[in-house]
């Protein structure tokens, strides 16, 4: 059966690696000065994981650990846990779906620090789970230096996550972030006091965290909830509830799929 006659594939978007290569070839034709760079980062590789290993290693490498050594670490992580690569593909698609400023797959893959920071963290989290905590902290430090994003390597983060602009993101050790979450710059998932046990927020699936919002303590933000920009959340947020203010309180009506729509307007009349 041809693609055109198959309703399951007709009009379906290209797989992320296929689209990335297409965008790279097109960009290389339009900007010959970047052709060698695009070949090295995308076109010379056999698959998405190889290209991602190369890109992240080139960003993170330096006098402390060479890019080649970092690339080998990332290759090991991807080989032993392919779900890291699957999550990275979903994250890239999330940027394309939710960020109207994104022109092609190349922008997040090559330049967006939210995407790059998250993919570096995913390997750091895998290293943490392997008991290689010092190396995991190294990648946390490099991520903070390079991208202005500070995520503790112990914190698990789901897939399909979009971190927009990313500057000033802080996610604590015992925080948990679900699938299909969107967060903007300046978000803090922090603790309170000096408790050494479970002390950070748990963010459900499909949550939208507005710019500069602070969620503090061992509390839960329910699935598809929405937190307004600049809010300080100190207590649980029910699923599909919108909250805003200092301290945050319910406002407006119920919300549906806020992380996908990126709708940050609140109907204060309800």
Written overview of the protein:
It is built from nine helices and 14 strands. The chain is α/β, with parallel strands linked by helices and 270 residues long. The protein folds into two domains: 10-149, serine acetyltransferase, domain 1, CATH 1.10.3130; 155-270, UDP N-Acetylglucosamine Acyltransferase, domain 1 (3 Solenoid), CATH 2.160.10. It is globular.
Distance N to C terminus: 52 Å
Strands, total number: 14
The 3D shape can be described as globular
CATH class of the largest domain: Mainly Alpha
Number of domains: 2
Q: Could you tell me the strand content as a percent range?
A: 5-15%
Oligomer: single chain
- Summing up helix and strand content along with how strands pair, one would put the structural category as alpha/beta
Q: How many helices?
A: 9
Numbering strands along the chain, what is their spatial order in the largest sheet?
2-5-8-11-13-14
Q: Helices and strands, in N-to-C order?
A: HHHHHHHHEEEEEEEEEEEEEEH
Tell me what the CATH architecture of the largest domain is.
Answer: Orthogonal Bundle
Under CATH, the homologous superfamily of the largest domain reads serine acetyltransferase, domain 1
Return Rg in Å.
19 Å
């Amino acid at each position: 059966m041809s693609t055109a006659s198959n309703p399951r594939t007709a009009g379906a978007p290209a797989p992320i690696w296929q689209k990335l290569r297409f965008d790279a070839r097109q960009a290389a034709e339009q900007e010959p000065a970047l052709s060698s760079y695009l070949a090295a980062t995308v076109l010379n590789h056999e698959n998405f994981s190889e290209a991602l290993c190369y890109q992240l290693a080139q960003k993170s490498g330096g006098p402390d650990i060479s890019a080649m050594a970092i690339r080998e670490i990332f290759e090991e992580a991807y080989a032993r846990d392919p779900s890291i690569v699957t999550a990275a593909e979903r994250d890239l698609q999330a940027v394309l779906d939710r960020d109207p400023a994104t022109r092609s797959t190349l922008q997040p893959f090559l330049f967006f620090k939210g995407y790059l920071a998250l993919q570096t963290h995913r390997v750091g989290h895998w290293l943490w789970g392997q008991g290689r905590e010092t190396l995991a902290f190294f990648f946390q430090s490099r991520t903070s230096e390079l991208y202005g994003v500070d995520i503790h390597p112990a914190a698990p983060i789901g897939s399909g996550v979009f971190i927009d602009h990313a500057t000033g993101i802080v996610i604590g050790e015992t925080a948990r972030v679900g699938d299909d979450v969107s967060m903007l710059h300046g978000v803090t998932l922090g603790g309170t006091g000096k408790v050494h046990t479970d002390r950070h927020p748990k963010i459900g699936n499909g949550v939208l965290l507005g710019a500069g919002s602070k969620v503090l303590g061992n509390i839960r933000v329910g699935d598809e909830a929405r937190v307004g920009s600049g809010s300080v959340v100190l207590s649980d947020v029910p699923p599909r509830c919108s909250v805003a203010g200092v301290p945050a309180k319910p406002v407006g009506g119920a919300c549906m799929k806020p992380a996908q729509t990126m709708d940050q307007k609140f109907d204060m009349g309800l």
